[in-house]
Amino acid sequence: REKVAEPLRYYAERAAAFVRERYADDPEMLIAAGLLTRDLSEARELLKSAVAKDGGGAAWAAYAQAVIESGPAYHRLAHWAVDPTDPDAVAEAKAEIAASDVPGQITPADAQPVLDVLGRWKEVEPENAAPLAFETYYLYGLHRDQEALARWEEAASLRDVDTHTQESMQYTVRLLERMGMSPWESVSNSLNAGMSLGSLSKLRTCARIGVYEGRLAEMEGRDQEAVRWWLATFRFGEHMQESADTLMEALIGIAIEGIGGWPVWMWRPDRMTGTPDGPLQGGRLWHGKSHEFFVREAGQEMADEIRDSMVKAKVRSMLTREYVEQLGP
Fold it and tell me: What is the pLDDT of residues 207-228, one digit of tens each?
């Protein structure tokens, strides 16, 4: 798991024993202890208890994170964000994959425990796109690509992408205060609670999968399948940023939307295009490599909708950066 800051180490090392002794039947405290605990095995047991005590979606989200963090990994070409029409980039990515110790496919035996937990989370929250999106990652790792596309589209059809990060932060604040940390310190140290960046990065990987597989489908004449991959990726990112309750989730949603829209509209900085005074972070949106293809298959109106949403996302990023800079060190 990710390392904790030094001021938090004392509490992280004692959280599990503290909660088991005083709050063994409180799912919120079990969730907080499971997220603070650095030992993944112990964290899974705490979060499994939170699930058993009806901790709801927040418990399932935290439990899924612990299972994902200790789950199988794999590398496929799509992870490298390569364009399958670029033979040099493909060859380089293949060489890097071959040189790594990470397999190109996961086994059903390794994937099933994660899929089981995600399936149960989905049953508890059928309107939440998050467990469906995580399933996409593992189905693609099993090379069940059509199922992965169907799951990605299903995730994109739901407007709520909820990893319960805000709730988890609130639970962690309460636990830290009960362990003796001051209120302001507990708030500051709870900022890393909830779905970890490592787990959320798998959603960004799904976005790369969507763009790669869409370009591959375009190359092979599977025109509608290409559009399905790209639109699902774009929609999921759009919904994730709209439903985000933390800055990290919003920024990842913006990034996913941008990846999904890349075949249709790509942002380029002025220093690369030679066009000055770009209004969007020193750049502009230009036609993507598959712009004409997309317009032919999905229509100009849909292409314009993607452009407008990407402009809005860029403006959000700019305003967020300005706000953070104003806060200072």
Answer: 999 999 999 999 999 999 999 9
Give the confidence band of 314 by pLDDT, cuts at 50, 70, 90.
very high
In SS3 terms, the chain reads as: CCCCCHHHHHHHHHHHHHHHHHCCCCHHHHHHHHHHCCCHHHHHHHHHHHHHCCCHHHHHHHHHHHHHHCCCCCCCHHHHCCCCCCHHHHHHHHHHHHHCCCCCCCCHHHHHHHHHHHHHHHHHCCCECHHHHHHHHHHHHCCCHHHHHHHHHHHHCCCECCCCHHHHHHHHHHHHHHCCCCHHHHHHHCCCCCCCHHHHHHHHHHHHHHHHHHHHHHHCCCHHHHHHHHHHHHHHHHHHHHHCCCHHHHHHHHHHHHHHHCCCEEEEEHHHHCCCCCCCCCEEEEECCCHHHHHHHHCHHHHHHHHHHHHHHHHHHHHHHHHHHHHCC
Q: Say how far apart CA 260 and CA 230 lie, in whole Å.
A: 5
What's the first-to-final CA gap in the chain, in angstroms? 27
- Cα–Cα distances (Å) from 30 to 23, 76, 157, 260, in that order, read 7, 36, 32, 37
Residue 245 has, within 13 A of its CA and on its CB side, a CA count of 13
pLDDT per residue as tens digits for the range 83-114 = 999 999 999 999 999 999 999 999 999 999 99
Residue 215 vs residues 139, 230, 260: alpha-carbon distances, Å: 19, 9, 11
